[in-house]
Amino acid sequence: MNAPPNESIEARLARVERLFWIDRDEANQAARDWLIELRVVDIDGANGEFVDYSSVETGLGRGAVARRLRVLLANISRTRGDPSRSAAEVQQILAWAERHGEVALQSRCHDVLGSVFEMVGDPALALEHAVLVNDLIDESEVPLMRAAARLCLADALGSAGSFDESRRRYNEALRLVIDDTDTNIRYMILNNLAYTEYLAHNHVAALETVEQLLALSTANSRPIGMYARDTIARVYLTAGRLDEAERMLLPAIETANDDPNPDAVSAALVTLAEVYRIQGRLDAAQRVIDQCATLAAGHGLVRWLTEVAREQAEAYAANLDYRRAFEAYRSYHAQSVALGASENESRGRILEAMFQTAESRRESERYRELAERDPLTSLHNRRFVDEHLSVAAIRSGEGGPCFAIAMIDIDHFKRINDALSHAVGDEVLRMLGEILKRAANRVAGGIAARLGGEEFLLILPGADAAEARERFEEARSDISDYDWTPITAGLPVTASIGVALAPEDGVQASDLLRAADVRLYVAKRDGRNRVVHTATVQASVSR
């Protein structure tokens, strides 16, 4: 699906995410097409890798967009029966979102993780993530996304047995999308609410809800999905409306071999077998049981193989064949135990995959941190500066916050090395690093770096000309006033400083560094131990 001309990144992302609630095949294709445009590594997510874009676009950066799309693909994969891979990848994306303050992305990650743990039967973790979805989602988000967050929480609360709270969140979600006729979210909300009322034995409320679901389907000429048919039939079954339950489920027989969602069809067939058994139509019940067993076995649907074993035992008992009923119950019990073990194993695989992903990320971050640190002073190095200064300069040039940089060079450093030894020189560099760290910490987000040799850099986000003048003069004074005697045996240590401001002195990192370097040269030329903000030397005491 091609993007409309002049469509903003935010609008395109909202449109693609909305497709999840309209046509998941289209959503899958649209997300993949966009990822190809962004040149993301490993589209299929086998390694969860991305091209780490640090350039800035209007609104969202490419790194955030790519990860939003990957979360969407993981969510589609989850709905198609691949929760463990989805969880591991989304956990990795969540860590990135937390590091970069991408709140909307964090919310979407927790939404997927909550649904994954709902699928594998861990209500505690499902609820934990669902609460975070709603804590993080902004009220400025479109109603569809806020409704999806409430739906996630309602499902988790229902699974945890908090039916009143679950009901309240379903109704909140429904109100948010009451006029949304394009997506299928209202159908899902009503279906899940009806099933929750059924589980809570609120039979009147469950029946009212399925009638709303049917009326909505009729009004919008939208076919009822197989999961919804199963919910409606279960409610009808409880109300004694067996014929209506049967009619609702008959399409499961007709589409069993063609339906793209065998899980939903298997659920419907189990319910239909129960309807036939209660009606006394035991031959019909047996045919459906056999059909369901074949379908579930063919797709490895352990849960429905277990449920159909239970229904088989009930059917034998209804036919007064107690020996076979006993054997079928034994089989059901064994499969039920196996199902519990399988669910535990599934949860374990997901948690292990998430743990391994987190461990891998921590190792990657540790090596990245080492690669961006100067080993002598522990300050950031030139590699770190090149990456982060470029981003800050571009942002400033596009109307973002101003900032100031200072290039700092130790005066007569060769004399220290020659007179006192290189070991003493290293101690001077280490101590200067500590002084500059303190200087950087006076401003939120301040950065101190060693560019190489005796040359250092300070970056002060948000600092204008007046604050830069004050902060860099403080730094110069901190260096010259420090008691260097224990290290240098009385030999003074001072520094010359050249300053540049963004965006006044440029919107490219190279322009800013060049301007600061020229002013550093002027400071050296005109006597050292001073700060130069322009071509004119600012007043400072030379010692």
Automatic annotation (TrEMBL):
It comes from the Bacteria. SUPFAM superfamilies: Nucleotide cyclase (SSF55073), TPR-like (SSF48452). Residues 401-536 form the GGDEF domain. Transmembrane segments: none annotated. This is GGDEF domain-containing protein.
